[in-house]
Write a structure and sequence with these properties.
272 residues; globular
Amino acid sequence: MLVLLIMLTYLVTFAIWVQIYKEFLTYAKKNSNFFCVIHFFFVPLHVNAKHMDTHILHIDKHIGKQHVLKDICLDIPQGQIVGLLGPNGAGKSTLMKIMAGIWKSDKGGGQIIMPKRIGYLPEQNPLYQDMYVREFLFTIKRITRADDDIEQLIDLVGLRPEANKKIRELSKGYKQRVGLAQALMGQPELIILDEPTTGLDPNQLVEIRQLIKGLTIQHTQCTIILSTHILQEVKEMCNRVIIIDHGQIKADHMMTDIDNLEALFHQLTMPQ
């Protein structure tokens, strides 16, 4: 009798998880941003498993008739925090999607050499609102076949007070923490964050900045590339800045070499 009861409990639990998994995948397919978050785990494009630096050589991208990226060349050594700075529509998100393997660059030229393990947080943070925080992270872990300790990950990004809540009940700041947690899954060598502080209040801004800066301490071999159009974000978090406008790299400097970031940015991006 006891054996039958245990088997029945197991089957019911299994059926519930199967249903959750089906609903999760249905949501992912209907929300392209969410699908692209897990996409790169299964389609590792243009990567070099033994190379932890990032090299982008002569990349172009057209969307329709618009030339969105023009002959982009970058070398990013392991361990840097790089700010990709530019006005709205400069091409920042397009470049990040190509780096993450979500989009392809134009055919016929260019080369991208990336680390094998990449974490990606899109600008529109795609989360399954009806799942609990811990449940969501465990589901991502199963889908990506990562071996992370979810409880340690929850502590790392400061989600412990909210771990038992549904994602829809979280503030914008805590939702960003959930997004960062899924981007960190699989111990990535490169983390790509597309405008991670958009829409946060001043207190949430400080918390997320501190969290991002702390990632390179927790993950000493990790490189972070984040995009923003807010100059203060780059000053607070980055040790290198790349300014992009109209699909072209206008400047690439270490922060210690820049006396006045505001003046440089306006000089390079203000309409003539």
